[in-house]
Specification:
Length: 272
Amino acid sequence: MTMTDSQSAQRILMRLETGVRDVYSSKAWKDYLNVLARFHRYSYRNTLLIYMQKPDATMIGGYRFWQNEFSRYVRKGEKGIRILVPLRGKNEEDETEITGWRTGTVFDISQTDGRPLDIELVCPPDHAECDPMFLQALLLASPVPVYFRKTPEGVNGYFRPLEGDITIRKGMSPAQSSRTLLHEIAHALLHTENNSCARADRIRREIEAESIAYAVCAYYGIDTSSYSFGYIAAWSENRDLDILRESLAVIRSTTCSLIGVIDAVRAPQKLS
């Protein structure tokens, strides 16, 4: 019996239930965030599916995409990456909405042969750290004022929601200042009084801010070796699945929007 698109999509959704739980482990989390950094424009579900099936993927597309856009061809026998594609229809108000899901198949560039690509797939290591303007771009991308001040021992930075500003420890390296500032910008974007994410527990707020900072750093090639997520498994162990899914979606959407803002700010700098 042939499985319908709807049945296939339902099986993938059921598989994702396990995948959401499994990714919340200290061992898997960094690997997942590295995939998220490369595919932040995809939904959290499809990012997770890519991680579960081919975590080393760098650029993906459908069979005809590779043929038509890059004159490349999927090698015979290659197993595709299954993702979810929304089905859209009109509701009673004549507005377009998602009515269901079907499955789609994509392939990584490593599964293809053909004409070489003349585009850069992944930022080279330490690319942003060699760019003296990157920290300046973060300052411009911040939604609140940023001040470099003396801070208490062991505190590299903090966001004050009532005052609406960020403080970063004076004298740190540009790379450490960038990592800290990204963390605090994530708090400023998510954890203000008027944002529903602010009602999350403290550990979840820290997980979200640190994960967003990690993913953005990974995208721009900033060293991420100092990041640690050893506490994530204990926090997630007895959490409701809806909370875990919600947090994944928040991390993905905030990472995507923050990269978009940083890229927009950096564009004029590259031209000058």
